[in-house]
Design a protein that fits this description.
290 residues; 16 strands; alpha+beta
C-alpha cells in the first residue's frame, strides 16, 4: 500500500493532516516541492526521514521547549487508519491540536540564501545590520532571528522585521518566540557539530497550548533546514547540502521556470533520497532501516 484512501482535512506541499477532534494526525508523504511547485515524482523514504528526524529532535530538545508530539506508535492509530499501518509506520505523528502562530521562526547561523542576497544589497538581513566583510556562507557572529509570514500552498513566505512580527502577534509573544528559537537552534547546532554537520539556517513553527508556547510541525529536517558537511565547509562558496538542492540544481539546468516542471530522472530521484537518508544517519548516529 502506497498511501491512504482517506481524504485529508488539510494538505500541505508534503504533509497531509487529519483532524481527529482533540488531536491531529500528521502524515509526511514522499512528495517534494521546488520553486513553489509540487513535483510529479516522489522521493522514496523522504516522509519517513522527515518524521523520524523530527522525533529525534523533539526528544533531544525536550528540556529546552515542550512540543506537540503525542505518539508515533501504530497501536495508537484510530481504527479507521489501522488498515494503513504498514504505510503509516515511521511517517506519521499523532500530535496535540494547538493554536499556531501565523509566523515562521527562522534562525540564521550562516549567511546564505535570501539572507545573503539582502546582505549584498544593503548590509542587513530582515532589518538587522550585520558586520561588514561577510561573504557567501560566512558564519554570522551570533545567530539571528528573522521571522517570516506564512504563505498558502503555492505562495511565497515574506521575510519581515522583528517589529512587524511583534505587530502581528504581540510584543511579548514575539520576544518569547525569538528566545525559544535561538535557544533551540543553539542546542541543535551544538549536537549537529558533534556529528560533523553545520546547521546553516532553519525554521521553526510554534503554537500555544494551555497557556504555554510549544514547538510544533516538523523540526530541523532537510526540508526546513540547510545542513552542510563540516569537513567540506569553505567560506566564500556555496556549500553542498543534505536536502533537495540536488533537485533544484537539476531543474535550474533543465527547465526555464515556465509551464509545468519536467519529470525527474531516476538518478536524480535516487541521489536526493540518499541525501535525505545521509542527513538522518549523520545527525542521529543511527542506521536508517529501509
Amino acid at each position: 500500500m502506497t498511501g491512504i484512501d482517506i481524504k485529508p482535512d488539510a494538505q500541505g506541499k508534503v504533509r497531509d493532516l487529519y483532524d481527529l477532534g482533540d488531536s491531529l494526525l500528521l502524515v509526511a508523504t514522499d512528495r517534494i516541492s521546488a520553486f513553489d511547485f509540487i513535483l510529479e515524482d516522489e522521493i522514496p523514504y523522504k516522509g519517513e526521514v522527515l518524521t523520524r528526524l523530527s522525533c529525534f529532535w523533539f526528544d533531544l530538545l525536550s528540556d529546552v521547549v515542550e512540543n506537540h508530539l503525542i505518539s508515533t506508535d501504530v497501536a495508537d492509530l484510530p481504527d479507521r487508519f489501522k488498515p494503513y499501518a504498514d504505510y503509516l509506520e515511521g511517517r506519521f505523528m499523532l500530535v496535540r491540536k494547538i493554536e499556531m502562530f501565523p509566523v515562521e521562526c527562522i534562525v540564521r547561523g550562516y549567511l546564505t540564501g535570501s539572507g545573503l542576497a539582502s546582505y549584498k544589497a544593503d548590509g542587513t538581513v530582515c532589518g538587522l545590520k550585520l558586520p561588514d566583510g561577510l561573504v557567501a556562507s560566512s558564519k554570522i557572529p551570533d545567530p539571528i532571528f528573522t521571522p517570516s509570514t506564512k504563505a498558502e500552498v503555492g505562495g511565497h513566505d515574506e521575510n519581515i522585521s522583528f517589529e512587524k512580527c511583534a505587530q502581528l502577534i504581540g510584543p511579548d509573544d514575539a520576544e518569547e518566540l525569538r528566545r525559544l528559537s535561538l535557544a533551540v537552534y543553539k542546542r541543535a547546532a551544538e549536537h549537529a557539530a558533534s556529528r560533523g554537520i553545520i546547521i546553516a539556517d532553519t525554521k521553526f513553527e510554534f503554537g500555544r497550548a494551555g497557556g504555554s508556547i510549544i514547538l510544533a510541525d516538523e523540526v530541523l529536517t532537510p526540508d526546513s533546514s540547510r545542513f552542510w558537511a563540516a569537513d567540506g565547509y569553505q567560506e566564500g562558496a556555496d556549500q553542498p547540502s543534505f536536502d533537495k538542492q540536488y533537485v533544484r540544481d537539476w531543474l535550474n539546468a533543465n527547465w526555464d521556470r515556465t509551464g509545468t516542471p519536467p519529470r525527474l530522472p531516476q538518478d536524480v530521484i535516487e541521489a536526493t533520497s540518499d541525501k535525505y537518508i545521509q542527513a538522518y544517519e549523520r545527525i542521529t548516529g543511527s542506521s536508517f532501516r529501509r
